[in-house]
Amino acid sequence: MNEAVKKRLPNVITILRIFIAAAFFGALSGFRYPEHGMLWGNIAIVLFVIAATTDFIDGYLARKWDAESMFGRIMDPFCDKVLVLGAFIFYAGSRFSVPEWIAEDRLMTMATGVYPWMVVLLIARELLVTAIRDVLESKGYKGGAKWAGKAKMILQSIAVPLVLLLVVNCRPDKHQSVMILIDVLIWLMLVVTLWSGLPYVTGLRQVLRQQSND
């Protein structure tokens, strides 16, 4: 494989992830809880796994071939956020609400365990971290901890398809153990995601304290 292809292939895979994400959202739109469009729901699971796999592949190839680029540094996290945040926005939407005639408490219950306030926290975390990173990098600092972000991304990449698999195929409104497992996955993902933003906040505080002492 020639050098030109090696330089371009990671970016091509990154762009491909956006198209796979679009197909994923399209498939999700074909499913409505509890049993409408189950085939589309299962197709969405496969598409998300493929998209998450491309995230690993493009990063691995970019590092292996020393093909990291400004385009990749911008588009790779952008594609990740579109895919994951978009999934949770869907999960908190009406297509995954348990109908009132099924829900025992007669209130809207989300089969995914994801509620709009959770999505607000996830988006707020991403916006805050992006703003802090931009400020720190503009001043010559590197903010945050990569390992925390990796842990967050790995857990999100596991939680999204696994929750969808359980929701589409296991009817959590009829099986309490399934709903408990979904709740554990979502809450764990939420806590780890918020926790992964703390290194950026503490890094900013240290920089501001250092500047004030100077």
Fraction in beta strands: under 5%
Ends distance: 52 Å
Q: What is the succession of H and E elements?
A: HHHEEHHHH
Biggest sheet strand line-up: 1-2
- Total helices: the number is 7
Identify the CATH homologous superfamily: CDP-alcohol phosphotransferase transmembrane (TM) domain
Question: In total, how many domains does the architecture comprise?
Answer: 1
Under the CATH scheme, the architecture is Up-down Bundle
Determine the mean pLDDT: 88
Oligomer: single chain
The whole-angstrom Rg is 19 Å
Helix content: over 70%
CATH topology name, in short, is: Four Helix Bundle (Hemerythrin (Met), subunit A)
Based on secondary structure, the structural category is mainly alpha
Low-confidence spans: pLDDT under 50, at least 5 residues?
none
Summarize the structure in words.
The chain is mostly helical and 214 residues long. It has a single domain (3-213), classed as CDP-alcohol phosphotransferase transmembrane (TM) domain (Four Helix Bundle (Hemerythrin (Met), subunit A)). It is built from seven helices and two strands. A two-stranded antiparallel sheet has the order 1-2. Helix 1 packs parallel to helix 3 and helix 4 packs parallel to helix 7. The mean pLDDT is 88.
Give the gist of this structure.
The chain has seven helices and two strands, in the order αααββαααα.
Descriptors:
214 residues, mainly alpha, Four Helix Bundle (Hemerythrin (Met), subunit A), two-stranded antiparallel sheet, 7 helices
Secondary structure blueprint with pairings:
Layout: H1 3-29, H2 38-64, H3 70-91, E1 97-98, E2 109-110, H4 116-138, H5 146-170, H6 176-195, H7 198-213
Antiparallel strand pairs: 1-2
Helix pairs in contact: 1-2, 1-3, 2-5, 3-4, 3-5, 4-7, 5-6
